Amino acid sequence: MSEFDQSAPAVRRIPVGKRCWRLTEMNEADIHTDRVLDPMAFLPDMDVLGCEMFDRVLDAVEVYDPDAVTPADVRRVLDADVVEPEDVGVLFAPAAESFIEEMARRARAERVRWFGTNIQFFTPLYLANYCENRCVYCGFNCESGIHRARLNEQQTIAELDAIAATGQEEILLLTGEDPVTSDIAYIARACELAAERFRNVGIEIYPANVSDYATLRAAGADYVTVFQETYDPVRYGKMHLRGRKRIMPYRFEAQERALKGGMRGVAFAPLLGLSEFRHDALACALHAYYINRAYPHAEISFSCPRLRPAAGAVTPKGPHVTERQLLQVICAYRIFMPFAGVTVSSRERAGFRDHVATITATKVSAGVSTGIGEHTHQAEEGDDQFEIADNRSLAEMCAAMRKMGLEPVMNDHVLV
Q1: Where are the domains of the chain?
Q2: Are 318 and 273 in contact (CB under 8 A)?
Q3: What is the DSSP string of 92-104?
Q4: Where are the beta strands (DSSP E) in 260-412?
């Protein structure tokens, strides 16, 4: 029996899939107590989609042995016109590192085929940094001691106007994961204000139920990004000690719930370096692939963040992911799903982002702040979520992209 079986009698739990449970009752205080919640047990108010996809992805990762991949395996996969899901793990393996130049050439050819020389821009706007979760690696975690803040409506308008004045036409709205301080109504109002000023409005918030995503879609949001952080259940439980984020399968199913709520598209990402990155990259690729098969109308994209230092957080001991290995992961995503978008964030240094944009990335951020109220300095400012490595403005980024032979695009989808 697990530590959770002893405190959760069978009458309180209903099996969901082969790994997950749904609690029929619970003590609300347990949400805010370290490690009391079973990471595989949905809370009573959480939508459950069945965990079939969750089990399928984790089954594949459990049998994946990247060290068993040979150069001949890599040659076979790269010679194929289409990379099948059972073969994509080959491209993340150590043996594929010596093929990185060939992978980059193929990734560039696929990028040009599907996206031409366009490179799309966006800016994130952090609305609040309150968070109920205790994620040891994140500056927003509930015990970090950072300065907390939340934009009111007038402050939100000021921040949105300042960003729009730079020429941006796509905005990504973010909050800490606190459904009390930043409830759906608060986020929906921010979406309405953003939709009045931007062509595209994305959100990166706490995972929500289908009806909540439908509310946000009606308010003007059309794209949802969710970082799974890690797909390793053991590591996930050790990194997420408190709060609703501790429930791993609910986070996993967020993109599917968003699409059921009417969103145009969804983005996927593990936080590379939090766990064994080759397994996490494989899981992310399969997760996106199976969502694409189930929802072929949806726009799919990958984000490719590496772990960054953050005030008030602890950097976990884990395998360091080099820039070369990050490039390998990004190229593998492109080769496997050539039509998917790929975002490389300001976590990475300027030179690397510029280089990757010419190979495979389709979207980059510009004019970035990860704090609260830092675009106008008119509100009480809240501390940043993590340190960025590329703080160039939109104008500077556009100039850099044109120098690399790319054409800056402010939006590629107009809502009607």
Answers
A1: 109-409
A2: yes
A3: GSGGGGGGHHHHH
A4: 265-270, 299-303, 341-344, 363-365, 407-409
Rounded Cα–Cα distance for residues 55 and 57 (Å) = 6
Let me know: does 91 contact 103? Beta carbons within 8 Å: yes
Cβ neighbours of residue 175 closer than 8 Å, sequence gap 6 or more: 126, 127, 128, 129, 130, 182, 187, 205, 206
The sign of the dihedral angle between the CA atoms of 178, 183, 184, 186 is negative
b/e map of 358-381 (b: 16 or more CB within 10 Å)? bbbbbbbbbbbbbbbbbbbeebeb
pLDDT tens digit at each of 416 positions of the chain: 345 554 444 448 899 999 999 999 889 899 999 999 999 999 999 999 999 999 999 999 999 999 999 999 999 999 999 999 999 999 999 999 999 999 999 999 999 999 999 999 999 999 999 999 999 998 888 988 888 999 999 999 999 999 999 999 999 999 999 999 999 999 999 999 999 999 999 999 999 999 999 999 999 999 999 999 999 999 999 999 999 999 999 999 999 999 999 999 999 999 999 999 999 999 999 999 999 999 999 999 999 998 877 766 667 776 789 999 999 999 999 999 999 999 998 889 999 999 999 999 999 999 998 778 888 876 566 666 667 788 999 999 999 999 999 999 998 876 66
On whether the 109-409 domain is CATH 3.40.50.1370, my answer is: no
DSSP characters for 226-295? Answer: EEEE---HHHHHHHB-SSGGG-HHHHHTHHHHHHHTT-SEEEEEE-BTSS-HHHHHHHHHHHHHHHHHH-
Amino acid at 278: R
Q: Are 310 and 386 in contact (CB under 8 A)?
A: yes
pTM: 0.94
Query: For the chain, what percentages of helix, strand and coil (3-state, to nearest 5) are there?
Result: 40, 15, 45
Locus of tokens 């595209």: 200
Which has the closest alpha carbon to 31: 148, 178, 230? 178
Where would I find the H helices in 116-183? Answer: 153-164
Instruction: Report the alpha-carbon distance of residue 121 to residue 144 in Å, rounded.
Output: 31
* Strand pairing category for 20-23 and 13-16: antiparallel
